[in-house]
Write a sequence for this structure.
């Protein structure tokens, strides 16, 4: 990871980013671009530092909504997927309404949730939950169903009852797919929480975005975007780190050929 | 020993014969197809295998030899007829057996040792007490030192050897093998045939071995069952009277060639090999 080649890679990335920033700053200065349109990186940095306290506070709010929504989605979706795989009756009962509700854009539900749950954390968590839910269910179902049928035959000839086949064969085999769903859901949960905050407009980074845009404080807008990107990336990387811990054996975790 | 013609054993057993370990009587298997007309995979097949015998089943693709093995294992049920193991009818997956398929079916998330011991995990038994035996088996197939590796670190031949250990670790009296070496290269295949013969001679398990390689069947077996193309019937059962233990050189002997020739002739007569 921090081999000479790796370190040189980081250097190149830093250099290219530096170049982009330098160019950006130059363009803004030379063409006297008004800062409400496009602030230079120096201005964004000043806004970032200046609003640091507020940004940190709002970050906690937003990430709190994201994490609760995401965790709730995972805790409901994974057992639900297991039930659907195990019981054909439940599958026929649950799958169609699940798919039908997925066709409703979650972000369109946000105003409804405001009516139902008022302002505050709940509607944002609800949107984050709903939007993360489906990818986790679908990916988990696919994972649970993707066991080689010959392996199931082999397990039956070893005398394994269905519950043991499920726990010791289907479940571990499904983990890579489950994590695929979780990674997708992690990015969607951020979108969901933000959307709730756009509509709710009382707290969180989404609120800061709306407020900054209304005030034409584009530097703050940029600063908030930077903060959001960093947070969303960090969340994704954490999920990936857990994945590496849980499924080190999987082909997706092995060193890629150079 | 040179024979004029290989001995053909009738498929029905005489009344004074010892009870068969595996007894397949009048078994037919048909599968429903999408357009309604059923396809007959096996047609009135009767065959028996004595305890401690190594019997191969050879036939062209689609002749139903894998179906026959699955029926013997109890993984599927016959449409007509009966399969008995040790006198008892097989109506559910038979568990006092070790099975090896053409694909190794090893679990990616378990080590070599973990995969071998999976046999006990699936049976609901604590694998720990069996660890020394598992290690000994792994060593006996030449994989000593690889116990902690994962399947993706092994070659195809190595993986199939692990699968073989998994099928043997619980010391079953019966071994069912469905083209276990079919996906391997010729050299690995030869090695594994030698290994399998050695393991069998040491333990004298009853073995039903499905293969499409005539040479492999003749090399390994006491008897070779030759099947017809679909619908599968027993064409002939040859007794292989070559002395044991057989090393790979026996494949160059005239007696060996005669057996192989006989089976080839049968295949040509059945239209399996044209020209």
């Amino acid at each position: 990871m921090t081999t000479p080649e790796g370190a040189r890679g980081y250097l190149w990335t830093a250099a290219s980013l530096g170049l982009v920033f330098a160019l950006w700053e130059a363009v803004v200065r030379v063409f006297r671009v008004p800062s409400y349109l496009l602030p230079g990186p120096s201005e964004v940095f000043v806004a970032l530092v200046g609003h640091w306290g507020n940004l940190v506070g709002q970050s906690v709010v937003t990430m709190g909504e994201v994490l609760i929504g995401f965790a709730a989605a995972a805790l409901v979706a994974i057992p639900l997927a297991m039930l659907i795989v195990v019981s054909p009756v439940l599958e026929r009962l649950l799958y169609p309404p699940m798919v039908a509700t997925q066709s409703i854009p979650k972000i369109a539900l946000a105003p409804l949730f405001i009516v139902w749950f008022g302002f505050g954390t709940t509607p944002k968590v609800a949107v984050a939950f709903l939007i993360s839910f489906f990818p986790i269910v679908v990916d988990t179902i696919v994972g649970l169903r993707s066991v080689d049928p010959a392996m199931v035959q082999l397990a039956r000839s070893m005398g394994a009852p269905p519950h043991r086949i499920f726990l010791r064969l289907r479940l571990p085999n499904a983990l890579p797919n489950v994590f695929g769903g979780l990674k997708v859901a992690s990015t969607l949960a951020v979108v969901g929480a933000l959307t709730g905050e756009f509509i709710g407009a009382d707290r969180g980074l989404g609120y800061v975005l709306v407020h900054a845009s209304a005030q034409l404080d584009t530097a703050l807008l940029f600063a908030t975007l930077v903060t959001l990107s960093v947070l969303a990336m960090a969340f994704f990387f954490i999920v990936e780190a857990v994945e590496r811990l849980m499924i080190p054996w999987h082909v997706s975790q092995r060193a890629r050929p150079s | 020993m040179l024979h004029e013609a290989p001995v053909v054993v009738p498929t029905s057993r005489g009344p004074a014969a010892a009870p068969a370990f595996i007894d397949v009587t009048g078994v037919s298997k048909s599968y429903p197809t999408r357009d309604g007309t059923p396809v007959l995979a096996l047609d009135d097949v009767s065959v028996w295998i004595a305890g401690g015998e190594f019997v191969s089943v050879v036939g062209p693709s689609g002749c139903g030899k894998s179906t026959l093995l699955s029926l013997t294992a109890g993984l599927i049920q016959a449409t007509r007829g009966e399969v008995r193991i040790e006198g008892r009818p097989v109506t559910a997956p038979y568990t006092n057996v070790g099975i090896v398929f053409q694909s190794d079916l090893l679990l990616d998330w378990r080590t070599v040792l973990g995969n071998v011991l999976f046999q006990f995990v699936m049976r609901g038994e604590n694998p720990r007490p069996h660890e020394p035996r598992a290690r000994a088996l792994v060593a006996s197939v030449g994989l000593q030192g690889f116990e902690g590796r994962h399947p993706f670190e092994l070659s195809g031949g190595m993986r199939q050897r692990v699968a073989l250990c998994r099928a043997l670790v619980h010391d079953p009296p019966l071994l069912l093998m469905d083209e276990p070496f079919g996906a391997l290269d010729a050299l690995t295949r030869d090695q594994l045939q030698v290994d399998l013969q050695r393991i069998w001679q040491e333990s004298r398990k009853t073995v039903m071995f499905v293969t499409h390689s005539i040479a492999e069947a003749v090399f390994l077996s006491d008897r070779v069952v030759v099947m017809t193309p679909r619908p599968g019937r027993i064409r002939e059962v040859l007794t292989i009277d070559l002395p044991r233990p057989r090393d790979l050189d026996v494949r160059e002997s005239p007696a060996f060639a005669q057996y192989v020739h006989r089976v080839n002739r049968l295949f040509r007569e059945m239209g399996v090999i044209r020209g």
